[in-house]
Amino acid sequence: MRILIVDENADFRAVLSEYLREGLAAAVLAAQKAGEPRPSALAVKEWNPATQGVPEEGKGGFKWNFDVLLIDSHIEPADPVEWLTAVRETLVPFPPVVMLTSGRDANEMVISAMKLGVVDAVSRLELTPKRLYQALAGAVVERRRQELIENSVKTDRYQLLEKPVDEPQAAPDAPSIRGYVVEALIGEGGTAKVYLARRESDNLQLVLKVLHPELSRDGRVVERFMQEFSLIQKIRSAYVTRIFDLNYDDGCAYLAMEFFGAGDLRDRLHDGLTPVQGLKIFAQISRALGAIHDAGVIHRDLKPHNIMFRDQNHLAIVDFGGAKAVDDKGGLTKVGHVVGTPNFMSPEQVMGRPLDARSDLYALGVILHQLLTGRTLYQAANTSELMELHVNGPIPRLPDEVNGFQKLLNKLVAKDPADRFQSARELYAYIAY
Fold this sequence. Notes:
Blueprint (H helix, E strand, L loop, with lengths): L1 E5 L3 H25 L8 E5 L1 H4 L15 E5 L7 H9 L8 E5 L4 H8 L4 E6 L5 H27 L24 E9 L3 E8 L5 E7 L7 H15 L9 E7 L2 E6 L7 H7 L3 H20 L2 E2 L8 E3 L5 E3 L6 E2 L21 H4 L6 H17 L9 H10 L13 H7 L11 H8 L2
Parallel strand pairs: 1-2, 1-3, 3-4, 4-5
Antiparallel strand pairs: 6-7, 7-8, 8-10, 9-10, 11-14, 12-13
């Protein structure tokens, strides 16, 4: 692992280098005990921005061949955001960045720097050899896995990141579908059951979404079911679920879809997230919505339940059963449901008005509030009161420790769609790294 350490204090750079060597030694011992491959050796270069300025490719023999960059949040004479901005202009692709933070302004500093490649932040107060090494090694693995995912989308070669479930529970009364071995029932909705299954041709573990048999005879329901397939097929993005097959076999209409081994966003919210972790998730969802909307699709039911993880760091949006093409004037509606989930419905959705991409952005704003506080935007005694709050309630104030996000939240959950970001791309340009 090749690392560039950026700090003007030579003694502190030396401490960081020593921490990394200690962290690597501990990682090697842990790998040996677990029978896992030995971590790669370290190649550490130190950089003093006060005396050396901004590194330039080729100048003085300097070469940009680093896997990860470690930078302090307080460097002289420029702040790290200015320094990273100047460096990034000279290098594409830019390596992932880990930032050391301290003080009350740490969140604001990292938020600004995330646009410039910061993927993790380590507080000086929590700095240990293990934590530092894991942050840098994790940043490298995260970048390489993202490249794997993006390449699999481009080449149509599916990349399964998480280890499949070895011993799922039996699925009583499971349907028999040619070409698949159904292993477990993992979910059920008003129109379909969802099973964990394996494809017999290559033993790939995936998910089968099977329409209820009585609905498979209803042409309108089957049309909606097939529309979910056609909508997802329009979207080529690493941030959207993959669908491998749509078929009708012996009375069963089914979709064969990607298996997500790392759970959904509800699990992450339950475990708790730091502001930096929350913003990373938020940025990925923004990119996902950008791809969805660019394909002419509105999701209409964005919520933590529909945001799944391939591994600890990479997510995708799923469940397009309520989605709609922007140019679809036929008004197909999800059978037996009002499209949307009350906690995440935009004011115009509550009032039954026409929807566009800005309604999805409102739902994303509700998710942002949840990522930062652990709570949905509004709490109410019943659904009617909840919907009234979405239409007329004031936007809640964020706690002091994350109030730097208030402007972003306000623009996402504005009551009038004209006051929101007008597209996911506009949003992503505002916050993305």
